[in-house]
Amino acid sequence: MTMKKLLRLLVSLTLLSNASVWASNTGSRQIVTGNDEEQFVFVGKCETGEPYRLFWYQKNVSGFIQSFYDYEGPNGKGTVQVETTPKVMAARVCRKMAEIINTNYWE
Fold first, then answer.
1. 48 pairs with which residues across the strands?
2. Which residue in 25, 61, 56, 26 sits closest to 41, CA to CA?
3. Domain residue limits at 68
4. Residues 85 and 67 sit within 8 Å (Cβ to Cβ)
5. Which one, out of 12, 19, 26, 27, has a CA that is 20 to 30 A from the CA of 33?
6. How far apart are the first and last CA of the chain?
7. More confident of the two residues 30 and 1
8. How many domains does the chain have?
9. Rounded Cα distance, 73 and 80, in Å
10. Neighbours of 90 (CB within 10 A)
11. Would residue 88 count as lying in a domain?
12. What would the 3-class secondary structure string for the chain be?
């Protein structure tokens, strides 16, 4: 075995042992993630460059947990009860004259 091959072998073994130690250390960290939050704020810019802001929160209405957005952007400003994703709401808020209605608008 040449010196160059021996050196490569030692470097490889060192890197592999460090990688396994790093992998075992990450398991000891307890990072809690989930979707149990009760409110989020989403801020960004529309394709036109205009800013928008969404504030999503949950509220107890007649014994039922309902989702709401407070929104502000090119489409205006307001509050709406709706079960939709922030991406969809951002698209609606960014589009002037887009329809933003409550989930149960007929009630």
1. none
2. 56
3. 39-94
4. no
5. 19
6. 82
7. 1
8. 1
9. 14
10. 21
11. yes
12. CCHHHHHHHHHHHHHHHHHHHHHHHHCCCCCCCCCCCCEEEEEEECCCCCEEEEEEEEEEECCEEEEEEEEEECCEEEEEECCCCHHHHHHHHHCCCCCCCCCCCCC
pLDDT of residue 15: 54
Quote the CA–CA distance of 8 and 41 in Å, as a whole number: 50
* Amino acid letter, residue 79: T
Give the bridge partners for 43, in sequence order.
53
Torsion, Cα of 89, 91, 97, 101 (10° steps): -20
- Structure-token match 């929104």, residue found: 71
| 57 within a domain of the structure (yes/no) | yes
**Domain-embedded: residue 63:** yes
Please indicate, yes or no, whether the overall pTM of this predicted structure exceeds 0.85.
no
In a domain, 90, yes or no: yes
Query: And the tokens for 90?
Result: 């951002």
